[in-house]
Please model this.
Amino acid sequence: MSTLNHKIDFAVVFTVNKANPNGDPLNGNRPRQDFNGHGEISDVAIKRKIRNRLQDEGVPILVQSDERRSDSYRSIKDRAESVEELKKLLSKAKATGADEQTAEAIACETWYDVRAFGQVFAFKGTKMSIGVRGPVSIHTATSIEPVDVTSMQITKSVNSVTNEKDPSQKTSDTMGMKHRVDFGVYVCYGSINPQLAERTGFSKEDAEMLKEVLKTLFANDASSARPDGSMEVNKLLWWEHNSKLGQYSSAAVHRSLKVEKVKNEFPATIENYRIVATPLEGLSVEEYDGL
Model:
């Protein structure tokens, strides 16, 4: 594995078409919006999709969704303690700095998402806590324009349980609501810090794997809230600097991307938008269309 010795920035442009990309549980599971009405998808949700795509490719992942887990472990603690050497270190009553570094190295070598995003190993019943800081940072995805949210009331055709008072009548749980974004173009930014990559062992090959995953971020992500094809990666932009510090700050690189609406036509499509990365002197950008 080759050590990552230069900074990387990236951006993903994607569309949401009649889907709920990331419901807010504190707001009736309505699609997330900021104060100005722009749609939002949390960084946690984006990382979840990345982990799921990596799992599809057979890559070892620590933080697995219970419904998508590829092993018999039902918690992060159980999965971590399945590595015997790591379990021994976590249970040490008097751990040294060397023990913590060894445990961190084992975790990073074992699971891709630990060496990419980091992880806190602090579980009930363990003696030692470890914090791993990962090199890959992901921003909250935000829509270019305010999004329209449509809500519809739905009913089940059958009761979940029999109505005790009158079996022929429907119970209250047959009524519900579904919410969706009619259409939105979202942008998610991210970066890879080579100094932190050295510590976790995140390699050039790991970065290439992340790049490929981002191209197909929503594959195998369908649900009743996100029908297959309702979310699509349209463009991935990948900037590679020539040094660890980078020629430009991540903020400057991300600002160089402009996504603008050029047509106000219906139905709304990505063709109504212009995606342009303004050249930065000495810094090239690779552009990939979603697959």
Notes: The chain has a mean pLDDT of 93. The CA atoms of residues 7 and 241 lie 5 Å apart. The first helix runs from residue 43 to 56.
